Amino acid sequence: MGIEVKNIKKRFGKHEVLRGINLEFVPGKIYGLLGRNGAGKSTLLNIIAARIFPTAGTVTLDGKTVCDDDSALEQIYLMSERNLYPEGERLKKLLKTTELLYGSFDYTYANKLAAEFSLDLNQKFGKLSTGYRSIFKLIVALCVPARYVFLDEPDLGLDANHRELFYRELMENYAQTHRTFIVSTHLIGEFANLLERVFIIKNGQILVAGEVEDVLAKAYLIAGPKEDVCKYSAGLNVIGHESLGNIYGNYVFGGVDDERHLPDTVSLEHLDLQKLFINLTNEKGEK
Ligand SMILES: Nc1ncnc2c1ncn2[C@@H]1O[C@H](COP(=O)(O)OP(=O)(O)OP(=O)(O)O)[C@@H](O)[C@H]1O
């Protein structure tokens, strides 16, 4: 069961941002939702959390339409990249409001996290720096009882030390609760090892969906002298290339058949998630 997103379309005026998105989030996994700036990630997450309505399509949780069903809606929490909290409100009061909305809230855990991140919960939200706004929103996201937690750019403004701490806390929370986390981020390199499944969104559609391991198993860099590389890559799905001096490289997605003879001059290695993402989404003018 889990969350099923079926044929979601979203138009802002003439701009068709989402063009028939289909995806599924099953319980107990960590997902990455990746896409370039303006690809439509936040729009999609806002639709899933019923904050905005789609032009077409449905979102269900265990078969119940999320926007019509309060019991389904309270199982979903979206940490937005936008700051939706009143600037003049104290953080403690904002935690109370969250508790009222979600029925319960883990204050012991929130206090522990606040101490770890050196966040004073007596402060007003408007007084926080960009990084501390993210930290506060992350604490809320980790302490609400929702089964599906969507994190939209959770790393916004976090320094390297706080990012490490956040990754650690996220994994610890995941190990203990087996909730589903869906992370939309541009820090692909840092998140790659934490993600189990990935969706790559491009031009308002899902371009790649699957287990990170399976996706990367199909992604290669073929490198060597240009002529040999091009000969070896003939007929493969070449998604990009690069040259460094005499060495030429083709990026390939979709696998390499075993029958091909690899010349001694050519090397074949797997790509990491960030390199694959860059090459799949590189076209100028496309998102
Ligand atoms: N309320 C709105 N009215 C009009 N256009 C909108 C609105 N919200 C989003 N858009 C447009 O939809 C497109 C997708 O925006 P969205 O914020 O979903 O992208 P994103 O993938 O989250 O981008 P980023 O990584 O830069 O945050 C953009 O072109 C944006 O300008």
TrEMBL record:
Residues 3-228 form the ABC transporter domain. Gene3D superfamilies: P-loop containing nucleotide triphosphate hydrolases. Keywords: ATP-binding, Nucleotide-binding. CDD domains: ABC_DR_subfamily_A. It holds the Pfam family ABC_tran. PROSITE patterns: ABC_TRANSPORTER_2 (PS50893). GO terms for molecular function: ATP binding; ATP hydrolysis activity. This is ABC transporter, ATP-binding protein.
